[in-house]
Amino acid sequence: MGDARVVLWDFDGTLARREGLWAGAMVDALARSGGDPAMRPELIRPHLREGFPWHTPSDPWGAMGGPEWWGRMRLVLQGAYVRAGIDAAAAAHAAEFVALEYYRVDAWRLVDGAPEALATTRDAGYLNVIVSNHPPELANLVGAVELGALIDLVITSAAVGADKPNPLIFEHALRVADAGADVWMIGDDPVADVAGAESAGIRAILADGAYDDAVGVTVAEAARLVREAGPADG
């Protein structure tokens, strides 16, 4: 065990949000590919409730780079398009554009107070480490939305091969961050972020983030709580 003081941050829903989420990216990809302009995210979203690696965190996919991860996901995306009423050829074509649209920078918005929260923990002597159930290219997006200067390390489930709340991703984060005893997790998912972190012995705070049904404190308040709590016992 090292001695670094570390705050682990979720990304999507905690620090930033993509407009329309995955379903929105798929609608945008369909339009880019010349497909049905009348398709709406709410028609695709019900068909995205399975198939992603974080839907089965107890059954890790294994570490993957971008081409392998997106190659596997392309079949999932095609299936969702078809179930939403898109013919198979158009679905296959549109799926080729989802990665580009998902990471289109102008589709992402920072959560209110996110940069200030990261600055608070940084100024208090913590490393800011993103731990996210995410495709491999997240570090590029973090830089593009101008959070890179406040983030010390970006860890994706794709690169690790395990998704929150699987303890493997938390163990990996602690190891590569050279973390000591003073570690926190801040995220908007009570299972993946909070329960997952706590099962790995990490103090966790539920943040309300970006979504309408989210509960918890603001990211600014979460950062303040970390700053004022002091090191964990032991």
Structure description:
With 234 residues, the protein is of the alpha/beta class. The chain has two domains: 137 residues, HAD superfamily/HAD-like (Rossmann fold), CATH 3.40.50.1000; 85 residues. It is 42% helix and 15% strand. The protein has eleven helices and seven strands. Helix 1 crosses helix 4 and helix 3 packs antiparallel against helix 4. The chain starts with a strand and ends in a 5-residue tail after the last helix. The model has no long low-confidence stretch (mean pLDDT 94).
Q: What's the overall average pLDDT, rounded?
A: 94
Per DSSP E runs of 2 or more residues, the count of β-strands stands at 7
Q: Tell me the structural class.
A: alpha/beta
Our count of domains comes out at 2
Biggest sheet: strands, sense, closure? 5 strands, parallel
Q: Which features does this protein show?
A:
single chain; 234 residues; alpha/beta; Rossmann fold; 2 domains; two-stranded antiparallel sheet; 11 helices; 7 strands
